[in-house]
Amino acid sequence: MNTAYLNGKYMPIEQAKISPLDRGFLFGDSVYEVVPSYAGKLVGFMPHLQRMNGGLEAIGISTGWSEKQWLDLCLKLIQENGAGNLGIYLQISRGTYESRAHRFPDKVTPTIFAFCFEIAAAPVADKTLAKTYKVSTARDIRWDRRDIKSTSLLGNVLHYQQGIEQGNQETLLYNEHNELTEASSCNAFIVKNGTVITPLLDHQKLPGITRQILIDVLRNDGKIPIEERVVSMEEVAEADEVWITSSSREIAPVIAIDSVPVGNGQVGDIWLAAQTLFSANRFNY
Ligand code: PMP
Known about the structure:
Distance between the termini: 25 Å
Helix content: 25-40%
CATH superfamily of the largest domain: D-amino Acid Aminotransferase, subunit A, domain 2
CATH topology of the largest domain: D-amino Acid Aminotransferase, Chain A, domain 2
Number of domains: 2
Radius of gyration: 19 Å
Bound molecules: 4'-deoxy-4'-aminopyridoxal-5'-phosphate
CATH architecture of the largest domain: Alpha-Beta Barrel
CATH class of the largest domain: Alpha Beta
Shape: globular
Largest sheet: 9 strands, mixed
């Protein structure tokens, strides 16, 4: 598991070298994606690509790549790295330029880098096997365009580390109005009286693909009500269930927030129903 792609060539990852003058390194001037793949089957390739292209457009980077080129890249990396459980990482920076200046260089070729890393097997809808999370909370210190999947992740890294240092595995974040935004590397959901609720999308949150798929499968099924709206931290504290979602975790039950149990402190029934639907449909996206 070590074949990477860099600027047109496949190579062992140790041989993939990027200049220190690359703007991704100097400024975090780049965007990225992680597409999960299980036994050679991609989850959410199209929505991941759409989000990536949206991010590239938002920061004024043009690769000229077609959907087929991105798909072929992912499939080639799967083929080269063995079709296990993989996160396919794609990163595009504005490119390497001879001087360090903030303004966009007139002529610069984007750096395109991709590699794979191993991820856990796809979660199964079984309460006894669910990987549960304990989380911290913090006022969200990140920039105002969290909808762009930028590699400028210092705020996310600091928030995540705070959770770790407090003996937890993630950190739930809230804005200046005490409203839930997301977690440092996941989106967030609560369940109250049988209704699934998640914060509305805006510039304060990444539009997660797992979030999008989960909302879609719940709506298509139609049995569990789902609301997208403002969620206060008081509601989080009083929720029956809390989940965090991301491509590699899918729907992860949170069982304690700042050492206080969520609901009865156990994995919930609505989680089971939601992960069951997600598991049945993950390869349809
Ligand atoms: N929010 C943040 C800040 C993230 O980094 C991620 C991805 N790790 C997510 C949400 C979840 O996005 P996705 O479901 O597309 O993986």
